[in-house]
Amino acid sequence: MEPLKALLQFQNEDSLNVLLVHGIYLSNSISDLLFFDQSDLKIEMAGKEFLNKLTELEKELGSKVKSIRVVFFSGFRQSSFDQFAEANKVDRVIIPYELEFDWSHKKSMDILPFLHKSKITKQLVAWDNNHYSSKSNQTYVTALV
User: Fold this and answer.
1) Beta bridge partners of 18
2) Which of 65, 81, 72 is nearest to 115 (CA)?
3) Which pTM was predicted?
4) 47 burial class (0-12, 13-18, 19+ CB within 10 angstroms)?
5) How many other C-beta atoms are found inside a 10 Å radius of the C-beta of residue 45?
6) What is the pLDDT of residues 58-97, one digit of tens each?
7) CB 108 within 8 A of CB 99
8) Cα 121 versus chain centre, distance
9) Percent of the chain, pLDDT > 90?
10) Contacts by residues 83-90 (CB-CB < 8 Å, ≥ 24 positions apart)
């Protein structure tokens, strides 16, 4: 949570919309898809405490952030990812370079290949002793702004 807070505090723009994105595999079952609820999956994967902290962070940052949302991407093609990014008005991908992909959930899907091929501006960020620094044109994964 602290790295996200530091990152957002150092952005020049005001009123950012932040998406925290995780790739997931969805079931092919029609009944599973009909009853799929992202909020249940958010609680299962992120936990209520993390989601509550995001809400608190959003309030704390005030006008710096319009919203912080956790969303899931479930496509299998680059065109699906590009449409997902366009629909969510993503103009930049922020990627903590220390972050390693978390395969701990059975539905998790690596979206790095989509990010690599995307034409969206990428910003690699690093935190060293709680100090913010950035490098561009390298990718790993996860906040879309």
Assistant:
1) 68
2) 81
3) 0.75
4) exposed
5) 17
6) 898 888 888 898 899 999 999 999 999 999 999 888 876 6
7) no
8) 15
9) 14
10) 85/118, 85/120, 85/144, 88/19, 88/144, 89/17, 90/19, 90/120, 90/144, 90/145
Closest CA to 79 of 87, 91, 71: 87
- Which stretches of 47-106 are DSSP H helices? 48-61, 78-87
CA distance linking residue 114 with residue 125, whole number of Å: 19
Length of the chain as a residue count = 145
Give the 3-state secondary structure of residue 128.
Answer: strand
> What residues pair up with 116 in beta bridges, in sequence order?
none
As given in the structure block, the two tokens for residue 115 are 């990010």
